[in-house]
Design goal:
Blueprint: H1 7-12, H2 17-28, E1 39-45, E2 48-54, E3 63-68, E4 71-76, E5 97-102, E6 107-115, E7 118-125, H3 142-156
Antiparallel strand pairs: 1-2, 2-7, 3-4, 4-5, 6-7
């Protein structure tokens, strides 16, 4: 894997600390660890999204979904078996995991459901009214100035 030194970037920017940290995390992320468990990210509406993670073998009590500012952390830890079991073949991986997803600004988790071995986490982007684009009406001062001139001419005459 290639290594990039981003320290010159830190010296030349102000207020982009979060972006630089995100780049660092992406570049140092272990790709083998990021493939388990498999997941999908889908857009369900204009401002709605869903993350679906295959969590076969985990119960709802063993799963954790937490939003920390602009980060979504999904974790699973298998509880200890009360009875020791002997597997002749073990193809279902129930090893512990922690998945982290970076969320854009104004994205929040609206709910999570666990069904048929899948964990679905629903998200919505809610941009505050103050940050939404707004149309500015353009007015012309020219007709008002002409009318003011005409009114001044009629008063002097």
């Amino acid at each position: 894997m290639r290594n990039y030194d981003l320290s010159p970037l830190y010296r030349a920017t102000v207020g982009f600390d979060r972006m630089a940290d995100l780049l660092d995390r992406v570049m140092t992320q272990d790709t083998a660890a990021s493939t388990y468990p498999p997941y999908n990210i889908e857009k369900t509406a204009e401002d709605a999204y869903r993350i679906s993670i295959a969590v076969a073998g985990f119960t709802e009590a063993e799963l954790s979904v937490e939003q920390r500012e602009t980060e979504l952390v999904i974790a699973a830890r298998k509880a200890k078996d009360e009875q020791p079991r002997t597997f002749l073949h073990r193809g279902i991986a129930t090893r512990a995991f922690e998945k982290r997803f970076q969320l854009a600004d104004h994205v929040r988790v609206t709910g999570a459901t666990h069904e048929n071995g899948m964990l679905h986490v629903d998200l919505v982007r809610e941009v505050p009214e103050a940050l939404k684009p707004r149309q500015i009406e353009i007015t012309s001062s020219r007709p008002a100035a002409i009318e003011a001139e005409k009114a001044a001419d009629t008063e002097t005459a």
